[in-house]
Amino acid sequence: MTQIVFSKEVWSARLRDFLHDCTGSAPSEEHDRIREALLLFVETPELRGRERRPSGVDPIPVDPAAIEAMLACGATESAVLALIGPDDTFMLSRGMNGTCLATLVMADGSEEMICEAATLSLALLAAYVSKLLTGMERKEDKAQVTLPSGVRLH
Questions:
Q1: Is 153 a domain residue?
Q2: Which branch of life, at top level (predicted)?
Q3: CB under 8 Å, gap of 24 or more: what pairs does 149-152 form?
Q4: Which of 23, 36, 83, 110 has the least CB density, counted as fewest CB within 10 Å?
């Protein structure tokens, strides 16, 4: 996780691995996943140099020391919210049997990303990564399907 990533394909693969790590992690691994998210989001080519995220949202400046301070005092949800930024619409819920769910809505409201994990923070991280991956896939689909302006679909 400490290598600088220059390829969108490699970054996408790392996001997918991280998504599985979040959903499969125990509550005791929560802090490690948040630290990994910080490294992953900072070292992406789309975020470097204040470039745009794959989702089309400008990157949020995140202070690693502030994230560590939040983790030290047990404010894991606040740390994750600082990582994802203030513009996402989300909902967190916890069931009677301890199931934690997070729902994030795409910026255009077209889809919801729902993820389950051992803690609310891990579920929110997983939902955010799902949203990033969906945004990247949509951009790839739009780039591949370019029809001439005179073509009509039936």
A1: no
A2: Bacteria
A3: none
A4: 110
pLDDT per position as a tens digit, 21-76? 999 999 999 999 999 999 887 654 444 444 444 444 445 578 889 999 999 999 99
What is the CA angle 122-124-130, rounded to 5? Answer: 105
In which residue are the tokens 């509550």 written? Answer: 27
What per-residue confidence (pLDDT) applies to 61?
A: 73
Answer yes or no: is 149 within a domain.
no
- Residues spanned by the domain of 108: 8-137
Strands 89-94 and 100-105, bridge-based pairing: antiparallel
CA distances (Å), origin 49, targets 31, 53, 54, 107, 133:
26, 11, 14, 23, 21
